[in-house]
Design goal:
With 86 residues, the chain is α+β, with helices and mostly antiparallel strands. 23% of the residues lie in helices and 27% in strands. The model has no long low-confidence stretch (mean pLDDT 90). It binds zinc ion. Zinc ion binds next to loops.
Length: 86
C-alpha cells in the first residue's frame, strides 16, 4: 500500500503514481469520509498551475487491501465514487 500524506512531496508522488498505475485503486481521506476511486478518476486531475488542496490518500493495486483498511478506521464513513465506479 502506498501512502500519500501531508508531506510536501506527496502531491508530486501521487501524480507520478497516477500516471504509472492508472488502473490502481485510491482511497481519498477527507475528514471523516473515505472515498474509493480508480487512480485515473477525473477527480484527481489537477491543473498544473493551480494550488493544490491535497487530501491524504492511500493507493493499492488491490481494492480489498484498501477496503480492509477502511473498515478498521473508527468513526469514518466509507464511500465509493459514483463517477469512476471502482
Ligand atoms: Zn472517482
Amino acid at each position: 500500500m502506498e501512502i500519500f500524506d501531508y508531506n510536501r512531496h506527496a502531491s508530486d508522488r501521487f501524480r507520478q503514481w497516477r500516471l504509472q498505475c492508472p488502473e490502481s485503486f485510491v482511497l481519498n481521506i477527507r475528514g471523516n469520509t473515505l472515498m474509493l476511486h480508480v487512480a485515473s478518476c477525473g477527480h484527481f486531475a489537477f491543473k498544473e498551475d493551480e494550488p493544490i488542496l491535497f487530501a491524504p490518500k492511500k493507493a493499492s493495486h488491490h481494492k480489498e487491501e484498501l477496503e480492509a483498511w477502511a473498515r478498521e478506521q473508527p468513526g469514518k464513513q466509507y464511500t465509493v465514487c459514483r463517477d469512476c465506479k471502482p
